[in-house]
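[step 3/7] inverse_fold.run input=structure_tokens len=126
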């Protein structure tokens, strides 16, 4: 059974950085594409970023392009989301999700992902 555990959330001032981690366990990590999504009370779950199995392909949602970077460390079975120049509108619960897929492309729809973590809260103060 695949398990995903997010960490690294917290309270940060606008303009500051934060790095989230997603620890994967339970199966062969190399078989999986991993994405980050976020959700706040006022919005539907939103695509943030995704990375394919090799790390060679990444995709980003428009609101975070140029500020966030997704990466993965396959030996550590961990995916990171480096968030820079944070804005109050980035405040949300951030979830990582995994899909068994070895492909050059990455899905950006939440419905395509099979496994989800419980989320980590990110709050950006103005």
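[step 3/7] decode complete -> sequence:
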């Amino acid at each position: 059974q695949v398990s995903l555990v997010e960490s690294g959330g917290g309270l940060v001032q606008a303009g500051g950085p934060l790095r989230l981690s997603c620890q994967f366990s339970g199966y062969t990590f190399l078989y999986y594409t991993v994405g980050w999504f976020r959700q706040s009370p006022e919005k539907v779950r939103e695509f943030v970023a995704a990375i394919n199995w090799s790390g060679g392909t990444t995709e980003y949602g428009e609101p975070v392009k140029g500020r966030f970077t997704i990466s993965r460390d396959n030996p550590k079975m961990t995916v990171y989301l480096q968030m820079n120049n944070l804005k109050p509108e980035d405040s949300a619960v951030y979830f990582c999700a995994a899909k068994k897929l070895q492909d050059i492309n990455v899905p950006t729809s939440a419905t395509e992902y099979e496994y989800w973590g419980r989320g980590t809260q990110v709050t950006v103060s103005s």
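[step 4/7] annotate
The radius of gyration is 13 Å.
The chain is about 0% helix and 50% strand.
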